[in-house]
Design brief:
With about 375 residues, the protein is α/β, with parallel strands linked by helices. It contains ten helices and 15 strands. A hairpin with a 2-residue loop joins β13 and β14. α1 crosses α2, α4 packs across α9 and α5 runs parallel beside α6.
Length: about 375
C-alpha cells in the first residue's frame, strides 16, 4: 500500500545513531518525520507523523533511493565521529535531524543527545540493548586501562617529603589554562584515594595531576598499580619525614623510589638536584628521561640571579633558548623549588615559560597566603 503527500507537507529525516559494544557508531534507525498540513515544522509533538524509511525514500527518489539511504547513513556516522573530536568527549547516542533539498544536498537542522524513538518502530528494547553493550565496553576499557588510563592522557604524580601538595596545586593551576585537568583534591593522596580516582577520571579530562603520599614501604607501589604516571616528581627526601618508615633516610629513599619503578619506564622523572639525599634514589635501571631542578650547576631547570626580599623571590630561568625572570610573591625558599618543579612539568606539557611565569604570579596571591 503506497501513500501520497500533497506539496504542502514538509518533512525532515531523523538519523538515530548509537555506540555499540565495540565503541563504534552504528545506525539505529532512519525515518522521516512528516509535518502536519500547512505546518513548516516536522515535529511529532506538534501533530506530525512518522513513516518507515524504505517506502518513503522510494517514493521521493525513485530508483535512486538506495544511494540516498547510503548517503544518509555515511553522513550520520561521519558527523557523529566529528562530534566526538569537536567536543573532546564521548557521546553515546545522537538524534541528527536533516533536510534534503531538490539537488540532493543534506542540510543539518539540529543534533539531539539521547533522542526518543517513536513507539511505532518498536525499537525501545533494541536501543536499551545497544546502550548496555556500550556500557559494558566502557567498563572493560577502563578496567584494562587502570594503570595507564589512556595513551593520550598524561598522568603527573608528585611525591616527596615536603612541598608535594603545593607543587601539585601549582602544576594543575598552570595546565588548567589550556587543558581539562583532573586534580586530586585536598588530602586525597592515599593509595585508596588513587583507587577512587580511577573511576573519577573521565574521557573529558586531558591530563591528571595527582599527589602520591606514603606511610611506609609498598604504598607508592600501590598508587602506581592503580594509576601509572608517565611524569613523576620527587620533591625531596627529608629526615623530618621518616618517622613511619623503617631505615631512616635510606628507607625513605627506597619508599620514594617505588614511583620510579612503578611509573612508565619511558617516561619523565623530575628530582631535586640540590638535595643530597636524592642521590639515594634508585634510578639506575630507569630507561626514561631524568630531569633535575635546582640552583646548582648541572640542573636542567636552574634558577639563577636569585633575589629575595620583603616582596618575595625573583629568579631567572632559561629553557630551550627562552629566558624569563620569574617573580614569586612568596617568602620561603622552598617556594622556589616548588616553582622549579612546576616549570619542569608544565614545560614538558608544551606550556611556554612566559605562560608559566604569568600563571605563577596569579597562583601566588599574597592575599590568599
Amino acid at each position: 500500500m503506497s501513500f501520497c503527500l500533497t506539496v504542502t507537507n514538509v518533512y525532515d529525516l531523523r538519523l538515530h545513531v548509537q555506540k555499540d559494544g565495540s565503541g563504534n557508531w552504528k545506525i539505529c534507525t532512519i525515518y522521516p518525520r512528516i509535518a502536519p498540513l500547512n505546518d513548516i515544522k516536522a515535529s511529532i509533538s506538534r501533530g506530525g507523523a512518522t513513516l518507515y524509511a524504505a517506502p518513503f525514500l522510494k517514493q521521493e527518489f525513485d530508483e535512486n533511493y538506495f544511494n540516498m539511504k547510503r548517503y544518509l547513513e555515511v553522513f550520520a556516522l561521519s558527523i557523529s565521529r566529528e562530534m566526538d573530536k569537536l567536543y573532546h568527549t564521548s557521546f553515546d547516542e545522537l538524534g541528527i535531524d536533516v533536510g534534503i533539498d531538490e539537488k540532493g544536498k543534506i542540510w543539518l537542522y539540529e543534533i539531539n543527545w539521547h533522542p526518543g524513538v517513536p513507539p511505532t518502530f518498536y525499537l525501545e528494547l533494541d536501543v536499551v540493548k545497544t546502550s548496555l553493550k556500550y556500557c559494558i565496553y566502557l567498563a572493560q576499557k577502563f578496567q584494562s586501562k587502570n594503570t595507564s588510563l589512556h595513551a593520550s592522557r598524561p598522568v603527573i604524580a608528585v611525591t616527596g617529603s615536603v612541598g608535594t601538595k603545593t607543587t601539585k596545586n601549582m602544576i594543575a593551576s598552570i595546565l588548567r589554562k589550556e587543558l581539562n585537568v583532573f586534580e586530586s583534591k585536598g588530602n586525597w593522596n592515599t593509595y585508596e584515594d588513587t583507587r577512587k580516582h580511577v573511576h573519577q577520571i573521565t574521557p573529558f579530562h586531558e591530563v591528571a595531576v595527582l599527589e602520591y603520599s606514603t606511610e611506609g614501604e609498598g604504598d607508592i607501589s600501590k598508587h602506581c598499580q592503580f594509576i601509572q604516571p608517565h611524569l613523576s616528581i620527587i620533591t625531596s627526601i627529608d629526615p623530618a619525614h621518616t618517622k613511619n618508615i623503617k631505615g631512616g633516610i635510606s628507607g625513605a629513599a627506597k619508599a620514594k623510589s617505588e614511583i620510579i619503578k612503578g611509573m612508565d619506564q619511558n617516561g619523565i622523572l623530575v628530582i631535586n638536584g640540590d638535595d643530597p639525599n636524592s642521590k639515594l634514589l634508585d634510578i639506575k635501571r630507569f630507561q626514561g628521561t631524568v630531569l633535575k631542578i635546582g640552583v646548582s650547576e648541572g640542573c636542567d631547570f636552574r634558577a639563577t640571579s636569585i633575589q629575595q626580599g620583603p616582596e618575595g623571590i625573583s629568579f631567572d630561568i632559561e629553557v630551550k633558548e627562552e629566558k624569563v625572570t620569574i617573580t614569586l610573591p612568596a617568602l620561603e625558599k622552598r617556594d622556589l623549588y616548588n616553582a622549579l618543579f612546576t616549570i619542569a612539568a608544565s614545560s614538558q606539557m608544551g606550556v611556554s615559560l612566559r605562560e608559566i611565569s604569568e600563571g605563577l604570579k596569579k597562583y601566588y596571591n599574597p592575599k590568599k597566603r
